[in-house]
Amino acid sequence: MSAEATNPDTGPELRSDTAPGRRRGRTRLDLRRLGRAALLGPAPRDRLPDAISHLADAHRAHHPDADLAVLHRAYVLAESSHRGQMRKSGEPYITHPLAVTLILAELGAETTTLTASLLHDTVEDTEVTLDQVRAEFGDEVCYIVDGVTKLEKVDYGAAAEPETFRKMLVATGNDVRVMSIKLADRLHNMRTLGVMRPEKQARIAKVTRDVLIPLAERLGVQALKTELEDLVFAILHPEEYERTRALIAAHAGEQDPLPAIADSVRAVLRDAGIPAEVHVRPRHFVSVHRITLKRGRLRGSDFGRLLVLVGEDADCYGVLGELHTCFTPVISEFKDFVAVPKFNLYQSLHTAVATSGGDVAEVLIRTHQMHRVAEAGVIALGNPYAPAEAPDPGEERVDPTRPGWLSRLLEWQQSAPDPDTFWSSLREELAQDREITVYRADGGSIGLPAGASCVDAAYALHGEEAHRCIGARVNGRLAALGTGLSDGDTVQLLLAQDAASGPASGWLDHARTPAARIAIQRWLREHPEEAKVQPAAPRAPLPMVGARGGGGNAVADLPDATVRLAGCCTPVPPDSVAGFVVRGGAVTVHRVQCPAVEQMRGLGRTSVAVHWRATADCRVTLVAESFGRPHLLADLTEAISREGVDIVSATVEPPSEQRVRHTYTLQLPDATLLPALMRAMRDVPGVYDVSRA
After folding, report:
1. HSE-up of 481 (CA within 13 Å, CB side)?
2. Of 50, 124, 210, 411, catalytic
């Protein structure tokens, strides 16, 4: 964009040494010379193409059949509209869109992206209008240019920056190429940041760290992310940067074991008949700094990793098998992102192997296509919005560039009209660097940030209806709303029937997503009196005492033995049962599925045959799970009474998070009444589950 810049020669430390792993084959362009040549006005006919010849070469390297005519027209419009404008470094302004477009071209961006990149500052900084761009280059280019155009401070004041990012993110939701250009734009501005005042450098670097770098990570554009990280590192942490730089410089004078290990790997794969390329991939500055913090003293092999590129997915696992056979694997370092890709499209096998000499090398194994996506992310997808050859009008387009995190962001930003709330929530959202997938009990999945709880799942699934949530089942078991979720969990949210129910202030302690936090905070603001109500102190259980259960209709094949029905499983006719002799000579009767049966057998208890009497009456213990509400106990006892069942005893546990648990021991006149009784209890308003104890 139109951020100020400096002479590249004034800050070599931010250019030449930023990414030690960058390719060294391509000569850095003299954009100042090209820009001044274009700025001087009418020039020889061969001079204008010369200004974009490197761009054309980079584009044709990825897209040999690309039509360069539209790029030529876009450059002519950009150069003529920016003519006379200078960057703060004294460079002609046209050097900036040229550099941004060249960054994208080298990553493999398609022609529409490059066209919009050349024009990305024209509407913001010149007299060119969006209507002119649309008329000349079409709706797609116009939409992208509009998406990256900043809002004016004169109109928005201090809110201009957060509202500009909101605008870009909303536009990215419809066309991810908007953010691709923004990231390349910020990279070039960060490369040329040295002439600004230190405090302004720090402000721009912090926004880059908190917003742009996480977005680059989520979009999978590692090539831009790693260089942005190094540039921010140099500005915000100059002392650590210099120490890391000195470490890398000292390592350059030492013998590096990685090339020899790479030769050994090539030999192993050649003997195995697996076609592969093996490269030594140096770590960038921030990566070296992180590994230093993790390991302390660095080994020679810690300054880089091996990259193995193969043709097919299956070859990745073939390479892995050969490496683990011929070297000693470091099992703790193994990760499979091929079978389970990261949420930013990244795929690769990660492992580490130790040689006979004691050197340990980290190895990345991926196909050539995986490598392109790992470096360029969504940019490597080409044009994801191109129509299919024969699209089905009734079929929804599957967009790999619209992942769950972006959908969540676009949803909650609508509920954050305040720029400060949006800005702080955006940084919190982007600070979550991992994502999990949880599954709904009724099918489908929900993407959530790592560390999310049932509260977050409730608002992600039900929106503001989640105010009525009073609990959940996680993997089939009842769980409190504050329960944390793990990747692969199945979650079922339980909603109260009372529409006036609302969240407690304590929910904020468990909410990790902005959507949940914003919705809870808004409800608490709108209901200040209810928000102040504190939950009542837990009460002791209220027992309704009755006779203790005996043997019921069970008869043991042991003369004069006392028979008792086990309280752990409360068997009733016609359950299959087993009896065991316990202390005192009594016989305890269990359902055969009861876990206690195996325990009894393990303890060597004497097994006794048991059968049911012909009489139909029986005793059973039921547990009713319900939402807390007035008159619930009365309604439940009335429902039980209507079925003609006697209550032997009952216990009501203290309420917990609006849930109440009732335990009833009941005497049934006929065992066949049990299913109807359980249905009648479930039909009581507020009761969501009834089960045998």
Report:
1. 28
2. 124
